[in-house]
UniProtKB/TrEMBL annotation:
Superkingdom per UniProt: Bacteria
Signal sequence coordinates: 1-23
Gene Ontology MF terms: tryptophan 2-monooxygenase activity
EC number: 1.13.12.3
Keywords in alphabetical order: Auxin biosynthesis, Signal
Entry keyword annotation includes Signal: yes
Reactions catalysed: L-tryptophan + O2 = indole-3-acetamide + CO2 + H2O
Spans traversing the lipid bilayer: none
The protein, known as: Tryptophan 2-monooxygenase
Taxonomy of the source species: Bacteria, Pseudomonadati, Pseudomonadota, Alphaproteobacteria, Rhodobacterales
Pathway terms, separated by semicolons: Plant hormone metabolism; auxin biosynthesis
Family (UniProt): Belongs to the tryptophan 2-monooxygenase family.
Length: 395
């Protein structure tokens, strides 16, 4: 039986089939041979923005990366000290072969320095209509990769950020992008002004849907409609330490064994799986309607709700062995407001092409929502950055 990754297990394959590797997608880019602008402003320091900055710097282009939040990474976020391994509060799984890490930085040698694990859980359970069921058949079809001693954040911190660190401006939410003059002018809510020949906008699609950035001239109506057609629901992650393990490798709630990525999803899992940890760390990952009951609660109440649910399933063991918990509520992050994009209205690829269309060949777009068949993944965001940089350098 063919193995599938968590990403493919959760989502319906798009019209062109299973996702291709980044290497194939980028094999003909030739980005470093094109004529290039002298300066590019990048809005957003998440996976796509950082990757775009890295590639442009390698191509000899001056960049400025303007980030609204107080830290880089966007939905790539790390927590140290909670466990005896760094915890991924955001993106966690590598939804492709580990070789994709080399593709992201255009350097396969990084694989020598990054230890990954084969994420192949053996114990699966589901909780449906108040009944706990064994679902170990899933181990025959489900395979994935994860970092062992680092995180997605650590990967960017080590291999990408050093190239662009001095060009990153934090705590600088962008208010407007004016591309009507000889240069594109980016203004922040703090009054900062950045000018460039081109601009790459790599903010979460929710920020564009909320009109957080004003474009002058305004964005074409068809492009604006396409952006508003992207669905990005609620999202939350919780990590709980217990003094004793009582849970399986993976517990899926409700329709989780059948649901596609575009639907509601909630699972708890052994977050220490394959990490060589001596601690018992359980993770909760919930998106869309399944995340709704959590995202409106305080962090304390989120923990209490989860422990109560686990007590019901496992006879009070969660309360008995509870040590501590931490919550990452992505729906409350002011410059993100959700989990990841998972669907477009009507024809997905037509909408994606509409969104990707640059504004007068001067304002370009990148991000996980534009990752094509790798949408909703970190490497999809990076693939989008590669493709957008190619367009910028060729324009």
């Amino acid at each position: 039986m063919t193995e599938i990754t968590r990403h493919l297990f959760l989502r319906q394959c798009l019209a062109l089939g299973l996702s291709s590797s980044l290497a194939a997608a980028l094999s003909a880019t030739g980005v470093f041979g094109a004529s290039k602008p002298s300066k590019v402003v990048i809005v957003g320091a998440g996976a796509a923005g950082l990757t775009a900055g890295y590639l442009l710097r390698r191509a000899g282009v001056e960049v400025q990366i303007v980030e609204a939040a107080k830290q880089i990474g966007g939905r790539v976020k790390r927590l140290k000290g909670f466990a005896d391994f760094p915890v991924d509060l955001g993106a966690e799984w590598i939804h492709d072969e580990p070789s994709v890490l080399g593709d992201i930085v255009d350097d396969p040698s990084v694989l020598m320095d990054v230890e990954t694990i084969d994420y192949e859980p053996q114990q699966f359970q589901s909780w449906v209509d108040g009944r706990l069921k064994q679902q170990n058949w899933l181990r025959r079809v489900y395979a994935e990769y994860k970092f062992k001693t680092t995180t997605w954040y650590g990967f960017f911190e080590r291999f990408i950020v050093p190239t662009v660190r001095d060009q990153i401006h934090l705590n600088s939410p962008v208010a407007s992008i004016d591309y009507s003059g000889s240069q594109v002018v980016v203004k922040t809510k703090r009054g900062q002004v950045f000018k460039g020949d081109k601009v790459i906008v790599s903010v979460p699609v929710t920020m564009l849907q909320r009109d957080a950035i004003r474009f002058d001239p305004p964005m074409p109506k068809a492009q604006s409609r396409a952006i508003r057609g992207v669905v990005m629901g609620d999202g939350i992650k919780v990590f709980v330490e217990f003094s004793k393990r009582f849970y399986p490798d993976v517990l899926i709630f409700d329709r989780g064994t059948k649901v596609a990525l575009g639907g509601d999803y909630k699972t708890v899992y052994d977050a220490a799986f394959g990490k060589g940890s001596r601690r018992h760390i359980l993770g909760l990952f919930a998106v869309n309607a399944q995340a709704g009951p959590y995202v409106r609660l305080s962090d304390r109440d989120v923990g209490a709700k989860l422990i109560g649910e686990l007590d019901q399933i496992y006879g009070g063991q969660a309360s008995r062995y509870y040590v501590k918990h931490v919550v990452q509520n992505w729906s409350k992050e002011p410059y993100i407001r959700g989990s990841y994009s998972y669907d477009f209205d009507d024809a997905e690829f037509d909408s994606m092409a509409e969104i990707l269309a640059p504004l007068q060949q001067r304002v370009f777009f990148a991000g996980e929502a534009l990752g094509g068949r790798n949408q909703a993944t970190v490497h999809g965001a990076c693939q989008s950055a590669h493709q957008t940089v190619k367009r910028v350098l060729a324009s």
